[in-house]
UniProtKB/TrEMBL annotation:
This is Alpha/beta superfamily hydrolase. The lineage of its organism: Bacteria, Pseudomonadati, Bacteroidota, Cytophagia, Cytophagales. Keywords: Hydrolase. Belongs to the esterase D family. One of its GO terms (molecular function) is hydrolase activity, acting on ester bonds. PANTHER family: SIDEROPHORE TRIACETYLFUSARININE C ESTERASE, SIDEROPHORE-DEGRADING ESTERASE (EUROFUNG).
């Protein structure tokens, strides 16, 4: 369904004259930036508003897209439109992906300066306040990440569960040598069970992921799912979904994840 929607969308662009053979003239968002004290750098992001934003007085939920280049933003626009949901989309491009997404360094994935904590503080203390002051947000926030930024989504869920209402991690999880770190983080996070009340979490992986040949990540997510069900029960809505016919970052996982968070 989504693949067909993408094809139709691009055909529409071609027929409407918005896409030319040598020139692209299509506004999908506005580039903005803020100076971050947390990261000690200026961070750019792209904001895409619902089509009726200027003509309405409505407030909208906000979708924060990690690894947020123009392609990721366009995917988010297509998915939200296909689902019939109007959201403010904030796409956050990378400057130093390993540094920002990783909370630790291990032999499996070595990072010189893992600073996910600072990046999460940037999002929570600087970016979100900026967005919610400038735009008509209704206060509902969704965070979406893929692969390494999917790991960050899970880190954010455990480190500051109150920051977002919904968490979507596609090809998300951790390797075996990261388990002790996340065990400690999980134990600490689940001591405050009330912070997870009403949250919606969707985690997806492929069973044919070339980056997880021994299924370390998949097994870790299976165990994490059991832990969530045992310790948090019905406090939150949680789904771990696997796909066999797709590779890394399963194609339908964004659509399925956002659809899951929209279910009443």
């Amino acid at each position: 369904m989504l693949k067909q929607t993408l094809i139709v969308f691009f055909l529409f662009l071609l027929k409407s004259g918005l896409v030319y053979s040598q020139e692209v003239s299509l506004k999908i968002g506005v580039k903005e930036s803020i100076g971050s004290e947390m990261l000690q750098e200026r961070r750019e992001f792209i904001v895409s508003l619902p089509s009726d934003y200027e003509s309405s007085n409505l407030s909208y939920p906000v979708l924060y897209v990690l690894d947020g280049n123009e392609t990721a933003l366009l995917e988010a626009i297509v998915v939200t439109r296909d689902l019939g949901v109007k959201m403010i989309i904030v796409a956050i491009p990378n400057t130093d992906r390993d540094r920002d997404m990783m909370p630790l360094s291990t032999p499996t994935y070595e990072v010189k300066n893992p600073e996910a904590k600072n990046f999460l503080s940037f999002i929570g203390s600087e970016l979100i306040p900026y967005i919610e002051k400038k735009y008509r947000s209704n206060g509902e926030r969704t965070l979406r990440g893929t692969s390494l930024s999917g790991l960050f989504v899970m880190y954010a869920m455990l480190e500051k569960p109150e920051l977002f209402n919904n968490y979507i991690g596609n090809s998300a999880g951790w390797y075996a040598d990261m388990q002790p770190y996340f065990d400690s983080l999980i134990e600490k996070a689940f001591q405050k069970k009330e912070l997870f009340d009403g949250k919606k979490v969707f985690i997806a992986n492929s069973l044919n992921d070339p980056y997880d040949p021994d299924k370390e990540v998949h097994y870790a997510m299976q165990q994490f799912t059991k832990k969530v069900k045992m310790d948090l029960g019905d406090r939150l809505s949680f789904e771990y979904k696997t796909y066999e016919e797709y590779g890394h970052v399963p194609f339908p996982s964004f659509y399925d994840g956002l659809n899951y968070t929209l279910e009443k």
